[in-house]
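Exam revision sheet. Question 4 asks you to relate a sequence to its structure. Input first:
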Amino acid sequence: MRPVADGDPRLLHHVVHGYRRAYRLAGSGPAVVLIHGIGDSSATWADLIPGLAGRHTVIAPDLLGHGASDKPRADYSVAAYANGVRDLLGVLGIERVTLVGHSLGGGVAMQFAYQFPERTDRLVLVSTGGVGREVNPMLRAVSLPGADLVLSALRLPGMRVQARLVTELMRLLNTDLGQDASDLLNLVDALPDATARSAFIRTLRAVVDWRGQVITMLDRCYLAQGMPTMLLWGSRDSVLPEVHAHRAHAAMPGSRLEIFEGAGHFPFHSDPVRFLSLVEDFIATTTPADWSADRWRELLRAGRPGTAVGRPDDARNRAVERGLRDASERSAT
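Answer key, structure tokens:
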């Protein structure tokens, strides 16, 4: 593939299954896929793409329902997004990738690795979803009926100024939400019409309800043994708290964990230089996962550590099981 000379790769498009999929493509070398979070787009990676493209082929899609991609009345589940990433890679002729996923995109990256382990070299999970019920109350509220009216009201004349004033106040008060308020407000700006708002709400409701997150990776993360994994998190993440980082790190033996002190939900915006350095070092110092059908079968048959024949085998393990259930509901995907 041709390297892209400028620092802002143009948006390209392919029609897959009848829907237009937008994506950014840059560089040459081993492939790295950047997967954005809910309501966001490939533009969120603008500061990172040029640096990564020096040694890698970088693909940054706009997930269906986001950015410049189509926004049909469709399946916006995490599993469907993983399939969409696979299909785009198929169109581009790319077999194996390192996945970098932020927030919802982290959940998509983990789902991709679960569904297509033979195509996954590494995982970089950034403030990723799917690690616990806890999530910002505003997102729980948006999952409720009537959310479309609230999002529409935020675009009324005068509301933008008021929202900016509230954002600035939270920043001045040095609240955790103040670290992320500006980025979160930009997500509202990315919902210009009813079609975009509907896609956003459908995506959110696939992963969040009034009680919090409704999917989990904790029950299957033991399958990632042998998969190089790095977790990156902001210490003042107001959307998905830092405790999720340590929970995921403990559940994924061998994973690396890096905390960005003082950063919020978008550590790659807060310190793009450090973020890029960590990702490049991680790729350079790890060997791509060597997936084996026999090994996968062994892991499935053994089950999660601490269980026997799929059931807790003593009081301690029953407590572990309860903890996993309390952390997040199981996903049926």
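Marking note for examiners. Residues 1-7, 312-320, 328-333 have pLDDT under 50 and may be disordered.
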